[in-house]
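If you are new to this repository, start here. Below is one unmodified record pulled from the training split, so you can see the exact layout before writing a loader.
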Amino acid sequence: MNIANRMMNTIAKAGGPCKSVILGPCKKRPAVVARWAVWYALYYWENWTYPKIARDFNRDQSTIWHGVKNTDKYDECPRYINLLGKDYVWKHERKPSIIKDLYRKLHKLVQR
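And here is the target side for that same chain:
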């Protein structure tokens, strides 16, 4: 869960909810949106499966599926995903195929 911790810390440093709120049972919009953004990034960029994310976040895998599929529901979610994307690109800058794929996915998300 090291990469997930790094993602949650990135969101917290940018003024989003802290890691304990993201991991906790809070159902307030900022926490939910940040949680969904982390799940989206783990699923699409790190190739984690729904069951693996569910185990690490102590959630049901259908909850993870719902969160990943509804990332465009709130305006804040793409902002968090873009924030995570910039951090992700910086850490993987020597792998151009990953960066190209990341920008393609970010572009599709913003177009929605």
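Two things worth knowing about this chain: The chain has a mean pLDDT of 84. Residues 41 and 81 are 7 Å apart (CA to CA).
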